[in-house]
Amino acid sequence: MEAYRSGESDAFRTLIERHHDDLLRFLVRLTGDRAAADDVFQETFLQIHLSADSFDVERRFRPWLFTIAANKARDYLRRKGRRQEMELSAPVGRAGGGDERGGVQFVDLMEIDVPAPDAAADASERDRLVQRALNELPLPLREILLLAYFQRLSYAQIAEDLGIPLGTVKSRLHAAVAAFARKWKASQNGDDR
Fold first, then answer.
1. Which of 11, 46, 135, 139 could form a disulfide with 32 if both were Cys (CB 3.0 to 4.6 A apart)?
2. 92 - beta bridge partners?
3. Which SS3 state, helix, strand or coil, does residue 105 take?
4. Do the beta carbons of residue 193 and residue 186 sit within 8 Å?
5. What is the pLDDT of residues 104-163, one digit of tens each?
6. Is the separation of the CB atoms in 53 and 6 below 8 Å?
7. What is the CATH number of the domain that holds 181?
8. What are phi and psi of 33, to 5 degrees?
């Protein structure tokens, strides 16, 4: 970051490349949507560029980056709302063709894909269930869980980055783990509560 601030524009690209995978994973989990995560990722690095002069070089870059990303994701989720709506007549393209209406098929809202009860969950199914359980958590709990477990930040780093007391981090994390466990157990039992 110091190199970028002193005029080395290639240093910015290095920052993006160095943090791309971890930050994008964090944002996908936080927003629940890859396209939204890509947008928030870009907004985050735009903010990094705009705020470069305010960065305290005595501090670590990664927590600052993830704090900005979390704030941008919160803003996105507030703008977007918790629910995505789709019109009943929303067209959806089908791979391998379509129908006689010009290759467009309409959403069948009654169609659901339910795996057999005895089917073992593979990695992608587990990831989907994890994301679903995360999405059902309130944003403050989801955010703290992601920072602690997926980004492996310490309690002190989380407290500093979010600007909350250490005790609040611990209590929120405890509540987040308990809520996630309930959601996970419900998903394993086929319960949608």
1. 135
2. 105
3. strand
4. yes
5. 444 444 444 544 444 444 667 777 888 888 888 898 888 888 888 877 888 888 888 788
6. no
7. 1.10.10.10
8. -150, 125
CA distance 155 to 47: 25
Answer for the pair 44, 15: CB distance below 8 angstroms, yes or no: no
| Sequence letter at residue 182 | R
What confidence tens digit (pLDDT) does each residue in 31-81 have? 888 999 999 999 999 999 999 888 888 888 888 899 899 889 988 988 877
Within-domain flag for 110: no
- Give the ranges where 6-136 is alpha helix by DSSP (H): 10-31, 34-50, 61-80, 123-135
From 57, 80, 103, give the residue that closes a domain. 80
Q: Per the structure, how many domains does the chain have? A: 2
> Residue 169 belongs to what domain range?
127-193
Q: Does residue 185 fall inside a structural domain?
A: yes
Q: Is residue 44 part of a domain?
A: yes
**Burial track 34-61 (b if 16+ CB lie within 10 A, e otherwise):** eebbebbbebbbeebeeeeeebeeeeeb
Instruction: Compute how many other C-beta atoms are within 10 angstroms of the C-beta atom of residue 104.
Output: 11
Distances (CA, A) of 179 to 121, 136, 142: 21, 9, 10
- Cβ neighbours of 68 (radius 10 Å): 20
Alpha-carbon dihedral of residues 179, 35, 164, 58, nearest 10 degrees? 140
